[in-house]
Amino acid sequence: MDGKQLARQIFLRTLDALNVPTSISRCVSCAERVLRCGDVEYDLHHVSDLRVIAAGKAAYGMLDGLTSVLPAGLTIKGIVSAPGSPKTHHPGLRYFSGGHPTPNEQSLLAGEAALDLLRGCSVETLVIVLLSGGGSSLVELPLLRTLSLSDVQQLHRALVNCGASIAEINTIRKHISAVKGGRLAQAAAPASVIALAISDVPVGKESALASGPTLPDPTTRDDVARIFARYDLRNLLPQPLIAWIESAQMPETPKAGDPVFERAQFQLVLGMHELFHAAHRIAESQDCLAFCDNSTDDWPVEKAADFLLAQLEELRAANPRQPVALIADGELSSTVTGDGLGGRNSAFVLACVRKIARKRIVVLSAGTDGVDGNSPAAGAVADGNTLSRASAAGLDPNEFYRQSDSFSFFDVLGDAIATGPTGNNLRDMRLLIALI
Q1: pTM of the entire structure?
Q2: Where is the domain boundary, 270, 305, 340?
């Protein structure tokens, strides 16, 4: 197979290896009504009340995996918010079709329903929270209740498009939300809370996943002020929100040591290590010498492209007799400068097109959730012939890059990668291959 076909196959087989329901059932088990989640046990004989909140792009698969291990006849109450429609409706659950990357009316209804669900929790209540990427917009409710849906949407669009990192974006989201930054755990106290997570955030930054609804928030109102200044957000956000923040009415989020977290646990189900392990194994099964790198997380697209391509050349020079695959994960920052179609993945590949021209190098970047920005694709793939093919078709990669229209560039060439929503979300995967 050619290099682009090889890269596509490695990516798609990696997605297949990261099955969400199977991963949940590996992490969670139940025998004799004792529920085990990682190293934590819950005796369901002493649980009179089980409540479930599932939020994120992998919510349906996570819920299927959880219900497959729960004892028959166990009564569950809960809410689910995810894109699209579920294949299976579980009794006792309310379903919402939240919006992503921008919240919709269903997102706000899901936020209200989550807080309603947690009212009246006792020490005999067990709350299981299933979290995955996208949860920040799929379940939302502003602390400032006078904010309209259009105000909330304006806030989210401004944050996503300003060039801020996901950690910075979530710092602001946490502080203005009634369901983020530890506030779900706060609402559930004194219940036992276990959060099972499929992570699309950096290792050690788990409180950024879905904006950390059950974890202590390490960020502060001072951090919010610094981010506002850094990205000049004052004129981009709804004025009622700006006035509320500047009048010092915005409360601080709950921190480590707060009693609301005494009975709260967090268990990672899938994350960067599982993505790297699967991709590394599959690349080597295709006779590539594989290496993994996560040092470019949150870097600007151009800087990451230069760094990873330089690293690939070094690896090829050290291993000239075998194809070399460099696998990177994480999310890059890509400031929107035009009104085209695309996202950070296709923008990364587009930034590499001129750099790899006439070289035996393949570059693929795609979202494991199947979504890249506002485009219908997951990402794109390019090789050393892409620039000459584009020139023959009258396509200028620099112009498409300026217009933030990377999807259209690769769509014309037949090199966009369209998977549809995958029901998973383990961040983005970048694959650079040096062929022999």
Answers
A1: 0.85
A2: 270
